[in-house]
Amino acid sequence: MLIHSKMKLAEVIHLNYHLLQIISRFGINLGFGDKSIEHVCRDYFIDVDFFLEILNSYHNKDYFPQKHLQGFSVGLIVEYLRKSHEYYLHTKIPEIEQLLQRLSDSYPEETRETYQLIDKFFTGYKLELSDHIQREEHKVYPYVFSVENAYLARNPTVEIVSSIHNYSMDDFEEEHDNVEDKLYDLKNILIKYLPLPADPRLCQAVLFELFRLETDLNDHARIEDKVLVPKVKYMEKWILEHFNA
Ligand SMILES: [Fe+2]
Ligand SMILES: [Fe+2]
């Protein structure tokens, strides 16, 4: 089922509660009554078409209108990607850390050893994720903006051409690793080897959060790889073809 602008935003959440985190990433707070998506987007100054494309691509994995999403400006796409980064680093990861802390506290001293392995693993994972994000925010996104500016100005300069030769979307594609895959080992330790905690629901809660984070990171990477990359590649190609040395 396709989500459209006349639908009530409340209905969308009843339809798929996972979208709640996407909605909040756009800065929309609960309490919107019976307002339609169109209406809420107007209230929050959000581009309704972009909002719908993101909701639909998360709601239905088969719905991925690459061409349509590619029609949006780099600014809109990057702003959304940045908000997701912020959500991972400042909301999701601290939430999981808190749960892990509660899990750790629930073990008696003598059985803490296996638990410490998880702690070490998660700390390592957090570092990797934050490196991945830093690289995109400080290197990739600024580059992407400079390519878009040069493309829109329709006048390729020596600077932008040498910048493309120096680092292009091909390089990004090559170095863009799957941070979500590394969560697999952590989940496995929890599923297979962790001694049963006093409250098994705690362990399940951590697992649910890890699965959710993994799916979310997957969808995020899909937008980077399938929307941002082809869009910028197209502009890089145009610039290189129209540069008169
Ligand atoms: Fe990212
Ligand atoms: Fe990424």
Write a structural description.
With 245 residues, this protein is mostly helical. It folds into two domains: 9-63, no CATH class; 72-241, no CATH class. Helices cover 74% and strands 0% of the residues. It contains eleven helices and no strands. It is flat and about 70 Å long. The N and C termini lie far apart (51 Å). The mean pLDDT is 90. One fe (ii) ion binds next to helix 6 and helix 11. The site of one fe (ii) ion has 5 residues, from helix 6 and helix 11.
What ligand molecules are bound, each kind once? fe (ii) ion
Distance between the ends: 51 Å
Biggest sheet details? none
State the helical fraction. over 70%
What is the rounded Rg? 21 Å
Order of helices and strands: HHHHHHHHHHH
Query: How would you state the average pLDDT, rounded?
Result: 90
> pLDDT below 50 for ≥5 consecutive residues: which ranges?
none
Strand content: under 5%
Please count the helical segments: 11
- Oligomeric category: single chain
Compute the number of structural domains.
Answer: 2
Briefly note the structural class of the backbone. Answer: mainly alpha
The coarse silhouette is flat
Number of strands: 0
Please specify the SSE layout and strand pairing.
Blueprint: H1 9-15, H2 19-25, H3 37-44, H4 48-59, H5 66-70, H6 74-105, H7 112-153, H8 158-166, H9 169-175, H10 183-193, H11 200-241
Outline of the structure:
With 245 residues, the protein is mainly α. It is built from eleven helices and no strands. It has two domains: 55 residues, no CATH class; 170 residues, no CATH class.
